[in-house]
Specification:
mainly alpha; rod-shaped; 86 residues; single chain
Length: 86
C-alpha cells in the first residue's frame, strides 16, 4: 500500500505541475488576446458613435438647408421689392 500511495502522490504532483504550466501559458496568452478584443470593441464603438453623429448632422443639415432656401428666397424678394420701390 505504501508504493501505491507514493505513486499516487507522484502522479498528483506531476498533474499539478502540468496544470500549473498550462495555466501560466494561458495567462501569458490572455493579455494579448484581451488587448486585441479591447481594440476591436473600441473601434466598433467609435464607428457606431461616428455613424450616429453623421446621421444627426445630415438630418440637421437637411432641415436647415430647407430653411436656408427659404431665407435666400426671402432675401431675393426683399432686394427686388427695394429695387421696385426706387
Amino acid at each position: 500500500m505504501g508504493e501505491t500511495a507514493a505513486q499516487t502522490l507522484t502522479e498528483i504532483e506531476a498533474t499539478r505541475a502540468r496544470l500549473d504550466g498550462e495555466i501560466r501559458e494561458l495567462e501569458w496568452r490572455l493579455p494579448a488576446t484581451a488587448r486585441l478584443a479591447k481594440r476591436i470593441a473600441a473601434a466598433l464603438a467609435g464607428i457606431g458613435v461616428l455613424g450616429v453623429a453623421t446621421r444627426f448632422a445630415m438630418r440637421r443639415r437637411k432641415q436647415h438647408s430647407g430653411d436656408r432656401r427659404v431665407r435666400d428666397l426671402e432675401k431675393r424678394l426683399d432686394r427686388l421689392e427695394r429695387q421696385l420701390d426706387y
